[in-house]
Amino acid sequence: LHSILALVQLLEGTRLDEEQAGHVGAIGEAAGALLALAEDALALARLDAGRVAWRVAEAAPRDVVDGVLRT
Length: 71
Known about the structure:
3 helices, mainly alpha, 71 residues
């Protein structure tokens, strides 16, 4: 999937007509969605297998909220 996304980026940098650009964009969107789905499935498999390592990290809630509101 990463290879497909890389090829899409290469194609987007070339001269394409409107129809071709639409097809390349659709391929990129589909590959991105499939990659996200695969990553989610792997994350669920790790949770199910009990192989999630939790770590403690300091966080300032106000900074986190401010960061979210800025995006």
